[in-house]
């Protein structure tokens, strides 16, 4: 049996990682071009 | 433990995870680069054959990855870096926001949301209707219902714990969905071409027919860029509805045990399961609507998006094990495939003849 809270936390952490990476890439695009 | 000690420990864990991921990530990059340049080479030198088999960089990345995984195998040191396919494809989706303005998003979003909502809840109803003819627990049935309707792996990860499903049941559900998605990804582009579907029609079809985000995008981009973009929008529509569908499935499965279903705080449940990365996609759309990107920057963003997706596709191939077929179990596979096929056929009929795309 999995712990609901720890699964939610894992997904949330992944979402934060995606948001961070996405924003970082868009900033790199702005700076690099 | 003091706050400072906790912070230091967290930083150390993060540093360790990054270091461990590097070798696997390098393999992902190598596979994606080989697929990208292999695609250009094959297109130039074997055009006739290439056009017949309908290969492209998307399918090549997945095929090369699958061959490596299932023949020579992957050393343990590379495994940690291979589990980021979802992160890469979701990051690609955030950057994809620069392709839309608010007005264009509303235009494609309205039709897609109506269609997605019908297919989502229709799939849940269909799965629960025929589930009693198969030998499986309520928990596995619930995992399959949310997985085959909403968004594959994320939906099962969200549903399983709430239903107190065993880890093995969640693994069965996930394996069933990924196997179905992989077969769909390699067959749907051929069917789409044979039926003369337009880019938008095909994008909508895979957007509801396949549930795993990375596989949806791979199938779409395997057919064409426009199809890939619309598939991404449909996929996002499903992701937005994830918390609501998962809550519905959990309440249906737990309806027998009144105390368990009454214990669920529905608003909190939806808040906890809401996919936050959608907010970053919307920010990218708003920034583009406000004219914050020049034409050259948008072109660069397009390249970044394609590479983020390509890395995700290479990761899917590198993590696909043929032996997972056995792990999924016979009844789960049959039920999943019946529901997946019925949904794909009904969606195809609706898209080809009734939907204004």
Task: Please describe what this structure looks like.
The complex is a heterodimer of chains A (33) and B (357). In chain A, 88% of the residues lie in helices and 0% in strands. Chain A is built from 1 helix and no strands. Chain A is rod-shaped. The relative contact order of chain A is 0.11. The mean pLDDT of chain A is 83. By secondary structure, chain B is mainly alpha-helical. Helix content of chain B is 81%, strand content 0%. Chain B contains 17 helices and no strands. Chain B is globular. The model of chain B has no long low-confidence stretch (mean pLDDT 85). Chains A and B meet through α1 of A and α4, α7, α14 and α15 of B.
Brief rundown of the structure:
The complex is a heterodimer of chains A (33) and B (357). Chain A is mainly α.
What's the layout of helices and strands?
The complex is a heterodimer of chains A (33) and B (357).
Chain A: H1 4-32
Chain B: H1 3-45, H2 47-53, H3 57-70, H4 85-96, H5 102-131, H6 138-149, H7 152-163, H8 167-194, H9 199-209, H10 213-223, H11 225-253, H12 258-262, H13 266-273, H14 277-289, H15 295-319, H16 324-327, H17 330-354
List keywords for this structure.
heterodimer, A: 33 residues, mainly alpha, rod-shaped, B: 357 residues, 17 helices, 81% helix, 0% strand
Q: What's the total helix number of chain A?
A: 1
The string of secondary-structure elements of chain B, in order, is: HHHHHHHHHHHHHHHHH
Q: Report the span from N to C terminus of chain A.
A: 49 Å
Radius of gyration of chain A: 15 Å
Mean pLDDT of chain A: 83
Major protein interface: A-B, 25 and 37 residues
Give the CA-CA distance, first to last residue of chain B: 58 Å
In terms of per-residue confidence, which ranges of chain A show pLDDT below 50 for 5 or more consecutive residues?
A: none
% residues in beta strands of chain A: under 5%
- The oligomerization state is heterodimer
> Approximately what portion of the residues of chain B adopt beta-strand conformation?
under 5%
Shape of chain A: rod-shaped
The outline of chain B comes out as: globular
Largest sheet of chain B: none
- The total beta strand count of chain B reads 0
Got a strand count of chain A? 0
Cα-atom radius of gyration of chain B: 21 Å
């Amino acid at each position: 049996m999995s712990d609901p809270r720890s699964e939610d936390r894992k997904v949330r952490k992944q979402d934060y990682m995606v948001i961070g990476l996405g924003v970082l890439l868009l900033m790199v695009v702005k700076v690099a071009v | 433990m003091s706050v400072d000690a906790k912070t230091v420990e967290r930083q150390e864990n993060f540093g360790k995870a990054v270091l461990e991921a590097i070798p696997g990530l390098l393999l992902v990059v190598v596979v994606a680069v080989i697929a990208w340049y292999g695609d250009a080479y094959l297109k130039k030198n074997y055009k006739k054959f290439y056009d017949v088999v309908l290969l492209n960089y998307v399918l090549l990345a997945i095929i090369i990855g699958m061959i490596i995984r299932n023949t020579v195998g992957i050393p343990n040191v590379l495994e940690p870096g291979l589990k980021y396919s979802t992160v890469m494809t979701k990051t690609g989706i955030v950057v994809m926001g620069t392709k839309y303005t608010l007005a264009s998003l509303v235009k494609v979003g309205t039709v897609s949301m109506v269609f997605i909502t019908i297919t989502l809840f229709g799939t849940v109803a269909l799965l629960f209707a025929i589930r009693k003819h198969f030998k499986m627990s309520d928990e596995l049935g619930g995992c399959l219902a949310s997985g085959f309707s909403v968004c594959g792996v994320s939906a099962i990860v969200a549903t399983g714990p709430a239903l107190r499903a065993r880890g093995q049941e969640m693994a069965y559900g996930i394996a069933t969905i990924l196997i179905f998605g992989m077969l769909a990804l390699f067959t749907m582009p051929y069917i789409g071409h044979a039926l003369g579907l337009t880019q938008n029609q095909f994008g909508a079809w895979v957007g509801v027919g396949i549930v795993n985000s990375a596989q949806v995008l791979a199938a779409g981009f395997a057919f064409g860029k426009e199809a890939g973009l619309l598939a991404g929008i449909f996929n996002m529509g499903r992701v937005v509805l994830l918390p609501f569908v998962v809550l519905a499935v959990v309440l249906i499965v737990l309806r027998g045990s009144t105390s368990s279903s009454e214990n669920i705080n529905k608003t909190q449940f939806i808040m906890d399961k809401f996919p936050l990365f959608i907010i970053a996609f919307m920010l990218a759309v708003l920034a583009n609507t406000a004219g914050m990107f020049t034409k050259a920057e948008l072109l660069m963003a397009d390249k970044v998006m394609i590479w983020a997706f390509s890395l995700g596709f290479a990761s899917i191939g590198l993590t696909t094990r043929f032996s997972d077929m056995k792990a999924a179990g016979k009844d789960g596979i049959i039920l999943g495939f019946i529901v997946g096929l019925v949904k794909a056929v009904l969606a195809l009929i609706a898209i080809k003849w009734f939907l204004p795309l």
